[in-house]
Amino acid sequence: MAIRNVRLRAYKHSVGELVRILETDIRKGLAPSQVNLRREMFGPNAIITPGNFRILKILWHQFKSPVMLLLLAAACISAYYREWADALAIVMVLLINAGMGFFMEWQAFRSMSALQALTRQHARVLRDGAMTLIEVQDIVPGDIIYVEAGDIVPADGRIVTASSLQVDESTLTGESVPVEKNAGDIETETVLAEQTNILFKGTAVKKGNASILCTATGMMTEFGAIAGLLTETADTAAPLERKLAVFGRQLLVFSLLLVGIVIVAGLIHKLPLADIIRTGIALSVAAIPEGLPIVATLALAKGMLRMGRKHIIVKQLAAVETLGLTTVICTDKTGTLTENQLELVQLEFPPAYQWQKSDPTIVRYGESYKRFFQVAVLCNTSMVQREENGTLKVAGDPLEIALQRFIMDKGSDINNGNAGYIKVSEQPFSSETRIMGMMHQGGRNLLITAKGAMENLLPHCAYILENNMARPMTDDDRKKWLSRNGQLAGEGLKPLAFAYRETIKAGKDFLHDLTFIGLAGFLDPPRKDVAKAVSLCQQAGIRIVMLTGDHPSTAGYIAEKLKLSPRPAIITGREMRAYETLGVEEKTKWADTDIFARVSPAQKLELIKVLQENHEVVAMTGDGVNDAPALRKADIGIAMGIRGSQISREAADMILQDDAFSSLVLAIREGRIIFKNIRRFIIYLLSCNLSELLVVGAIAVAGFSFRLLPLQILLINLVTDVLPALALGITNGDGTEMVQKPQALNAPIISKAKWRAIGIYAVIIAAFTLLSGKIAESRFTNANNVLFFTLTFSQLMHVLNMVNAQDTFHDNHVVRSKYIWMALAGTTAVMLLITVIPVLAAPFRLQPLNIIDWIIVLSCSLGSMLTIRVIKKLGVKFFLAGR
């Protein structure tokens, strides 16, 4: 088998030559035995990335942070003063911290990998004589693949047939304009960009459709050849990660100022230089919450995985932040607000024949039904197959599937309708033309079939089929059927018009002089859960804007049923002028309107621009190939997982696998929960670290006889920075997420009010910690250990303060979280274990405390927690924004 030699020369071979080389069959595709053999030979159709490189990158990331440099400095200074136990202990802490960071980042990476597994693409492939839907990774050389507008080409392949085919090859060639492709032979040597009879993996079909003969898969494709260059692209930090880095730098500057003060105070008190340096290191280490970036990343990743289990795939960490800030949702109607289970429930033929679903019978005789049947079957690219168990396997446009279901339900055979006709040409449906046409050869004659929106199809019609005969169409006929079209739309139905023409010959533009057949009405009722979801959004300060290509009356009917807007005004695409020509008044009108009908993808993009100029944070749903620019332009693009094109899914930040609007609202709620949780543990960590700074600084300035050692501060940070903070990051919501208005896009994570709260928390914790040390000092007991344990348990108990000011002490989302209690129990056990095991306790200068010391520790720890809770209760307005 010479398959391996095909990739670089496929464009120079005719289809017939490639069929022989690849040992396949154009009409039947590969047999199962051939597929299995080639799968073993060539492996999966996937771009392989070096996983080990990711492991090393994550590991290296742990050792280049500022805290690691501080730890190394502390270890070196301890070694310089020959304090080998301290130096060894610091190195051990360094390794433990790096290990924990590596584990958490690796878990986050695995979570992201799991999400990618949920977004596997599928392709339509001809195998063993039947069109089959398979995963892209299962494609092998020799497969016959069908692609159409909206698809990402799954493998390299030689074009067998093509209809109005245009492909975006910018990912490979850099050419920004879509390239026209065809099945013609190329005899001369040519470059990649001029291989017009080849489709390349990873490129996007923008228009038309084609069947291709797969010539290369996976790393053997042109895309695979440059995969090494793609994997060198640097990862971009999420906005939250950048904000956290800013926090770290600010705290480092603050700690350096404190270090300067401590050095001056130490020199005034004539302390040994070594003690002054150790205290300075302790301050620097205390300033940085080591677990902050790690826990934030893991909380985001786990939140994304949790949403993934609920059919919501978030592709970027940054999108989680944006979800919680969304102020406007621009959504399609069909399949998002409605069930997307279209059913043909009404047929109307001239002059006055009408069939409705409630009527069990249908007139099958007559020219009108015959021609309707031909259009429904021939002007249709969907796939409907009845399985052995009686279920239907479907793929394609929902409206075309509904047509085929109707024909099958009425006892007609779709294959009989196709028999005797060979497709000659096609004009695919597009959002600009809103019509679709097919030309088939049937004997000596050509049969042209067309369907589409009434107002778009009627201008192509010159005749009307009435009483089994075609007659010239009059202006009154056009007005009558346009009016009837609007009436059906006003009743909540999706109207679709049908037409045909028989001729002996036709040119490239064959959609003219058509004969109008009639009108069909499809029912797509609102989803049962959408009304409640819309109400939740409105309660949360989020506007819903409907953007649909449907008739204005249909849009208005659905909007009324869902109580989508208090403003009944509807703007149609014909009323929308180009963005460059808009004045302030028109932009204001657009921004204040909630229903847009008969809009094109380009107009959706322009509306998003207007909304963003109005300082809105816009979420945009889309499913078509032409929606990709709007999805990218929106603050968060949301693609549909069921009916969405591959191009729209690639362009989006988020994918709704069930296409349900209620899932989008659930995603916003989850995004707000994640953001609030991250804000809570940031406040928790910052207040804990600031309390350490205040304790160390106050002791140094006041010249107390007791002090915290750098190793003890590191141990406290390891205990309080990770498990309790992580538990806060994955708790459930407090129930207020969808009753609050969205936060401003450029608002800081920590507002001024929250910074004040952090300062007060830290002062209270530090004050009670110093109080415990002074009490212990007065009793001539181990003041250092009492100070250490009081600070530790004050910080652990402080996690219970991360609730709303109005929450009760015994019943709130933090107290109800099992993760919080697991974190508190685990960290307490670790601290007690270190204390009672001499080998572990020695480096940290820890000793078992007596009963009186424990009473001091627990009293002061509880005192700090209760004081904060009382102050929060008394100062609700002050603390309402801070947790």
In short:
The protein is of the alpha+beta class.
Structure notes:
The protein has 883 residues and is α+β, with helices and mostly antiparallel strands. 48% of the residues lie in helices and 17% in strands. The chain has four domains: 3-45 and 139-230, Calcium-transporting ATPase, cytoplasmic transduction domain A; 239-306 and 668-879, Up-down Bundle (Calcium-transporting ATPase, transmembrane domain), CATH 1.20.1110; 312-339 and 526-659, Rossmann fold (3-Layer(aba) Sandwich); 347-476 and 488-519, Calcium-transporting ATPase, cytoplasmic domain N (3-Layer(aba) Sandwich). The strands form four sheets. Strands 10, 11, 14, 15, 16, 17, 18, 19 and 20 form a nine-stranded mixed sheet that branches. It has an eight-stranded mixed sheet with strand order 8-26-25-24-9-21-23-22, sandwiched between helices.
Label this structure with key terms.
Calcium-transporting ATPase, transmembrane domain; 32 helices; alpha+beta; 9-stranded mixed sheet; Rossmann fold; 17% strand; single chain; 26 strands; Calcium-transporting ATPase, cytoplasmic transduction domain A; elongated
Low-confidence stretches are 228-238
Computed over alpha carbons, the radius of gyration is 34 Å
Q: Helix tally?
A: 32
The averaged pLDDT comes out at 81
Task: Report the span from N to C terminus.
Answer: 68 Å
CATH topology call of the largest domain: Calcium-transporting ATPase, transmembrane domain
